[in-house]
Amino acid sequence: MLKVGVVGVGGISMAHIPAWEAMEDVELIALCDIREERLSQFAGKHLYTDFDEMLEKEDLDILDICLPTFLHVEHAVKAMERGIHVLCEKPVSLKEEDVEKVYSCARKNGVKFMVAQLLRFMPEYDLLKQIVDSGRYGRVLSGSMSRLGGIPKWSWDGWMGDEARSGLVPFDLHIHDLDFLVYAFGAPEKMVPHRSKRPDQDYLHVVYEYGDFFVSTEASWYASPYPFTAAYRFQFEHAVVALEGGKCVAYEENGKVLELLAGGNVPKEGDAPEGIRVLPNDAFGNELRYFADCVRENKPADKVKQEEIGCVLKLLLQVS
Length: 320
Ligand SMILES: NC(=O)c1ccc[n+]([C@@H]2O[C@H](COP(=O)([O-])OP(=O)(O)OC[C@H]3O[C@@H](n4cnc5c(N)ncnc54)[C@H](O)[C@@H]3O)[C@@H](O)[C@H]2O)c1
What we know:
Elements: E1 2-7, H1 13-21, E2 26-32, H2 36-39, E3 46-48, H3 51-57, E4 62-65, H4 72-80, E5 85-89, H5 97-109, E6 113-116, H6 123-134, E7 140-148, H7 163-166, H8 168-185, E8 190-198, E9 201-209, E10 214-221, E11 229-236, E12 239-244, E13 247-252, E14 257-262, E15 266-267, H9 283-296, H10 306-316
Parallel strand pairs: 1-2, 1-4, 2-3, 4-5, 5-6, 7-10
Antiparallel strand pairs: 7-11, 8-9, 9-10, 11-12, 12-13, 13-14, 14-15
Helix pairs in contact: 1-9, 4-5, 8-10
Nicotinamide-adenine-dinucleotide binds next to loops.
């Protein structure tokens, strides 16, 4: 039984905690947050308001870091130096040099470290990656990706609205789509960013150029409560594959329209293109399960690679 602790029991931990609890070979044993009121709902777990005390008293196999971004590295290093494997929410840091710092700390201490880049574990994006890799619709000719919504107002101490602690839209939101692009296509040859940044809102548009194709991306924290939407549309030689209005569809040049995931993202029987497997509709479960399996079976947790994380941070640092 792997023993897991979570530090940072705020917004995103509410998706991580049930995913850990659903695993039979894992025991979520301890939780830590400086706000005692966040812990009271988890009676029965070992609860801490002091991270060092949790590390001292618990014998954890895995630490899951759901803290605000600016606290990730310090906590990851402390845990890894005690021989604990670390899964860390994105972005690992706002500083490029921190990437080598955390990964070399993991190597030195013989533990696994992975940044939780969720899109890689979402069926909608995993399907797109498989379609790209398989070449089933030919080469990519163009793409667009977007992640739009209103400015988040729930974070502890308003850290998300503070550029020094969150990096705002580029590092907190757009990072998801850029990480996917680097995962699917490698480092772009060129980026052309445009940004409308004000104290109360932040909008980013970036075109990434890949030699023979380009991808246009958008991300926003609008001041108004614009509903959150995440979408993509990729033009291949022989089809358009799109995630729009929550539906993932391949429009083939022969006139066929394949709904790749049925309502609620359940794989649609018979419709998935041949040779393409569909991940379970449980992105956080898929992500945490992957990391736990890597730890249990002592396999490299390399679905998310250091070079990719470094590449993404280097690009984001060019956005001002
Ligand atoms: N994968 C995704 O889709 C996704 C979505 C949202 C957030 N995130 C990432 O998750 C991380 C956390 O974001 P959030 O929205 O949950 O933030 P949040 O503000 O809701 O939660 C952070 C929690 O950390 C606690 N905390 C602060 N300092 C602490 C300390 N020193 N020790 C212990 N606890 C402390 C706060 O009390 C709070 O409960 C961020 O890095 C964010 O970018 C990822």
